C-alpha cells in the first residue's frame, strides 16, 4: 500500500541484522506485498509469500502461516523458526523484534527454577494439539501488531505531508500576495504618473 514512512525500511533493517551472516542458510516466509519486493532486491530466498492478507488479520491467515512453519520444522527443512515483526508499544514507540517460535525455548519460571518437561508420545501430535494453537496466537498477535504499527507509521507520514503542504501553501500565498501587491503598486504609479503628465 505504501505511504508508511520508514516502516518497511526498519523491518528490513531488523531482518538484515537478525539473519545477516546466516542469509545463505536461511529461508524466509514473507507476509506482505512491499516486503516481497524488498526481500527479492536483497536476494533473500523465500519459500512462501503471503501477500493477500486483509487489513484485519484473522486466525485463518495466521493458521496457514503457522502450519507452513511447523511443517518446515517437523520435516527437518529448517532447524529454527523465527518471527520478525514490528511490535506496537504506543504511537511514539514501535520497534522491530524477533521471536524464536521453534524449537521452543524454555523460560526460567518466576521462582528462579527452570522448568523441564519430558514429553512422551508422538511429537507431531503434541505440536498439533498444544503447540499449534500457541504458535498460531503468537503469529496472529504479530500480524495485528504489524498492521497497527504500519497504520501508525502511515499516520505519521501523512501528518508530516500535511504539515509540509501547509507550509508550502503559506509560502505560495505570501509570494502571490507580494506579486499582487507589486502589480497594484505599479498600476497606481502608472495612474499617478499619467495624471501628473496631463496637468
Task: Outline the structure in words.
Helix content is 57%, strand content 15%. With 199 residues, it is an alpha+beta fold. The chain has one domain (7-105, 117-158): Pyruvate Kinase, Chain: A, domain 1. Helix 3 (59-74) crosses helix 4. The longest helix is centred in the C-terminal third of the chain and has 76 residues, at 123-198. InterPro entries: ATP_synth_F1_ATPase_gsu (IPR035968), ATP_synth_F1_gsu (IPR000131), ATP_synth_F1_gsu_CS (IPR023632).
* Fourth CATH level, the homologous superfamily: ATP synthase, F1 complex, gamma subunit
In terms of quaternary structure, what is this? single chain
Instruction: Estimate the helix proportion, in percent.
Output: 55-70%
The count of domains is 1
Strand arrangement within the widest β-sheet reads 1-2
What's the CATH class, please?
Answer: Alpha Beta
Keywords: ATP synthesis, CF(1), Hydrogen ion transport, Ion transport, Membrane, Transport
Pfam families: ATP-synt
Membrane topology: Peripheral membrane protein
GO molecular function, one term: proton-transporting ATP synthase activity, rotational mechanism
Amino acid at each position: 500500500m505504501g505511504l508508511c514512512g520508514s516502516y518497511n525500511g526498519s523491518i528490513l533493517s531488523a531482518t538484515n541484522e537478525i539473519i545477516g551472516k546466516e542469509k545463505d542458510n536461511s529461508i524466509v516466509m514473507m507476509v506482505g506485498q512491499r516486503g516481497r519486493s524488498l526481500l527479492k532486491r536483497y536476494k533473500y530466498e523465500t519459500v512462501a509469500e503471503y501477500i493477500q492478507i486483509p487489513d484485519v488479520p484473522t486466525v485463518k491467515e495466521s493458521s496457514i502461516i503457522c502450519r507452513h512453519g511447523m511443517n518446515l520444522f517437523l520435516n527437518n527443512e529448517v532447524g529454527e523458526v523465527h518471527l520478525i515483526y514490528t511490535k506496537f508499544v504506543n504511537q511514539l514507540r514501535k520497534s522491530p523484534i524477533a521471536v524464536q517460535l521453534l524449537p521452543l525455548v524454555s523460560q526460567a519460571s518466576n521462582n528462579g527454577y527452570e522448568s523441564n518437561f519430558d514429553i512422551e508420545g508422538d511429537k507431531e501430535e503434541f505440536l498439533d494439539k498444544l503447540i499449534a494453537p500457541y504458535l498460531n496466537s503468537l503469529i496472529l498477535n504479530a500480524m495485528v501488531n504489524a498492521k497497527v504499527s504500519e497504520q501508525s507509521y502511515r499516520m505519521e507520514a501523512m501528518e508530516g505531508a500535511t504539515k509540509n503542504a501547509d507550509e508550502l501553501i503559506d509560502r505560495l500565498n505570501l509570494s502571490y500576495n507580494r506579486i499582487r501587491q507589486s502589480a497594484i503598486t505599479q498600476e497606481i504609479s502608472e495612474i499617478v504618473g499619467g495624471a501628473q503628465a496631463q496637468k
